[in-house]
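@here heads up, posting the sequence + SMILES for the flavin mononucleotide run so it's all in one place. Ping me if the SMILES looks off, I pulled it from an old spreadsheet.
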Amino acid sequence: MEFSMAPMEGITNHLYRNCFGECYGGISRYYSPFIAVNAGANMKIRDLKDVLPENNRAPVIPQILVNNSDDCIKACKNLQGHGFTEVNINMGCPSPTVTVKGRGAAMLADLQILHLFLSRVFEGLGDTNLKLSVKSRIGIEDPAEFDGILATMADFPLKEWILHPRVLKEGYAGTPHLEIFCKKELSKCKFPIAYNGNIYQLSDYVKADELIDFKGNCVSHVMLGRGLLIRPYLAENLAKWDSENCKMQESQSKLSQNHEKTRIRSFYEMLLEAYKKEFTSESAILSHLKELSFWWVKGFTNGEAYLKEMRKAKRLIELDNVFKRLLVNEEVIIDDGHFEII
Ligand SMILES: Cc1cc2nc3c(=O)[nH]c(=O)nc-3n(C[C@H](O)[C@H](O)[C@H](O)COP(=O)(O)O)c2cc1C
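bot reply: prediction finished. Complex structure tokens:
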């Protein structure tokens, strides 16, 4: 199975992606956090800089947030001019600041408008060989809306459809509706379908595979989000899973406490250096590292107990001291496939 890193705005910027790639493996492609395309197809220079090949050590697929077809076409052509061969359209963001403008997941509300948008965009890009993929949810309020969305998407030559099986109103809470991946109509789509949602550890992956049957239902790849923030070694570990024989490949070395602690420390130090080069103010660096700490502590025994102190840190040295204590006193919650398969 192929794994990608999910776009996570405010976190998985090029500095994060580059440092991640130096310290961890298993990810074959990275999706950028959304680039908002404003009237006249304007994109912020900072957002463009984040995806440009010269600032990225691994392949990145830029994701755009746009619901105006003319702006979408112009932005896609602009990105193609920078060397990109694929652009991903965000139809999944549930944030009210985004959906109030009819963007992100709100694009799934009116399927006639969505059809018109996609028709115009594909027509407008007809003279290019740029590929378009979509990352979306399965509806606004009710998973039953998915059939209409599926019928709409099926009319277009998408490069890939990445599905996060929740409706807008669910945000990121609750259990994803895995059952929609078993719909017969999905296998009739002419384009590949990727899975995204709630894979925090190997057992989640195995359960999702059992329910969905990734291979049988032609899931092209699995996109990892929050799970990869908490356990940066997640994709590496999932790749060791032998789904035919339901066990970890024996030839692969097992995870060790020391190794994982050393790696997360190196990752932290590498990020710190990268942020120091990027930002002049200590508070900007602190706020980025604090955001990451929020996720990292979840991968340690008793980790949440350190969070309050991390949040209160006013200097980098204070945050560093708490992080060092966490590494000395706590254990990485190793996810190595020793679990009951239900
Ligand atoms: C902090 C944060 C920022 C996110 N930013 C984006 C984004 O820019 N574009 C997008 O398509 N999804 C975004 N998402 C959604 C994730 O890409 C992913 O779909 C979601 O977290 C579910 O996957 P997971 O359960 O593996 O985390 C974001 C999620 C989080 C938690």
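MO: Residues 257-278 form the longest helix (22 residues).
MO: One more: The chain has a mean pLDDT of 93.
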